[in-house]
Design goal:
- The chain is mainly alpha-helical.
- The protein is 82% helix and 0% strand.
- The chain has one domain.
- The protein contains five helices and no strands.
- Helix 2 (27-66) packs across helix 5 (149-167).
Length: 168
């Protein structure tokens, strides 16, 4: 979860600086910067997922060295699952907190003619992204372990696609 938060912090800084340096009156440019920020966020998340894989691989080697039988007590699949789940849970918590913050302000969504399904839809979308992060983590770790670079590309491309679809 920490690695995901650091990637989000870096993406936010890049987006903030790019918005500050751009023409704020140009709506088309601002929309492009929003799309750019989302893409940078996904790419940084995947870069940090790779860094986390490398860190866990080193830790796995250390655990194997100090164990009695020479094997690590935690398998790579377990680490991949936990890593993906932690990325997903922190991502879901972060995104759903924004939805909950919207629910307490003036002009609450779902009242006065808006869709009454906004909150349940947001909850299902958050749940789907948590599951996607879990799957991406497992596939990513397996692809790194077996050196299947096309699978890494598939994870990054599907992550970019999912983020783009959420923006719609």
């Amino acid at each position: 979860a920490f690695f995901w938060l650091v990637s989000l912090l870096l993406a936010s800084l890049i987006w903030f600086v790019s918005v500050q340096l751009s023409d704020r009156e140009n709506a088309k440019l601002q929309y492009g910067l929003l799309v750019f920020g989302a893409a940078v966020s996904v790419l940084l998340q995947e870069a940090f997922r790779f860094a986390y894989f490398k860190l866990l691989k080193k830790a796995d080697e250390g655990l194997a060295m100090i164990s009695e039988d020479g094997r690590s007590p935690i398998s790579l699949r377990q680490m991949a699952y936990v890593s993906g789940l932690s990325f997903g849970i922190i991502s879901g918590a972060f995104s759903f907190v924004n939805v909950l913050a919207d629910s307490v302000g003036p002009g609450t969504v779902g009242i006065h003619g808006d869709s009454p399904y906004y909150f349940i839809t947001s909850a299902f979308l958050t749940m789907a992204l948590v599951l996607l992060h879990t799957f991406w983590g497992v596939i990513f770790f397996d692809a790194c372990e077996r050196r299947r670079y096309w699978c890494l590309g598939l994870v990054v491309a599907s992550h970019l696609l999912a983020s783009g679809l959420v923006s719609l």
